[in-house]
């Protein structure tokens, strides 16, 4: 294959002649050669250095959970409730809005958690709460893209795609990257897509847990016949690949997808089947209650997939709309409903991973694209706020029972140990044994990376 490519390359350069045209064509061909996927693009690869985590579960809460109502208590809000905020928001004066919920200390660490999350609070000693997150975009589309791809405007590979590209996956019979959430997502597949990375690294989106992967089984022919057909198709595609190197990334991904679909018939039905779980487990995740059933199924599935070697699993809490945490009004009702739906399942996931010896090697992340304002929008809502918000991490090499960073006394701005989204991404890659400055991909004449030209590993949170 390499010989055929070299011959084709020389012929094309000869046709281009000398000068700028030949140089441009040579650069283009070099990009394409580097973009070529290996024969098995998702084969496990060694990290840059010893990893603390093997896989990631990202619990994404679209809409922006309010930091001052969840994991960042601000007594000053109760003291100044109804008074004009000392800070304008987008040029508008607004009044301070106290949190409707009390905070309680949990565990040996004494970590303060809102009464919205009593079950997660019981896991406080495993949580690393970052109260000083900052982002660049106050709007949902750009905020979601920045958090999931590192870029808020242009189409870039998602976090899961970069990780799959860097490490491959432990289980060749399941996708390396699964995105799971009922209903559509704002910005759609851009949140879990591979952009200019080979298509083999994009996420497999599951929106219907009753029928997670449709058309999985070929009912017309048996496995032996399928294998012979796939082998013949692969030989034809490989021959085609040698003559059409410019199509290499997409065609290699297509070849790999055919093989993955064949292998998934053996393992995917069992992996996605929650029926084998005990009644005690199903109750622990909240599958016996309407309020917690949907996200409980997602969390239980995440545990099953992680223990089967899936590299990156992203759960979207999207029940009831694109951004369920987007409470511009009725903060109390909206956040209470969302917390009720997610609190018990998340705690069950953390406890289940720990009891099975998986949490230390599985990085769990919780958060949205930004936070919310300490001042009121209308009478009982909060607006978008990217300048100081909260996320937490657990397991996977981070210190538990700790708080990193701080916002001011109202919760407006991150004022201590600021952590930008690029820093978060750099830290996630570091925990997986990947140097964010070395994990690059050449496209359109330049090297790209998840963190662009930014990002610092947050070393204070490392275990």
From TrEMBL:
SUPFAM superfamilies: Alkaline phosphatase-like. InterPro entries: Alkaline_phosphatase_core_sf, DUF1501, TAT_signal. This is DUF1501 domain-containing protein.
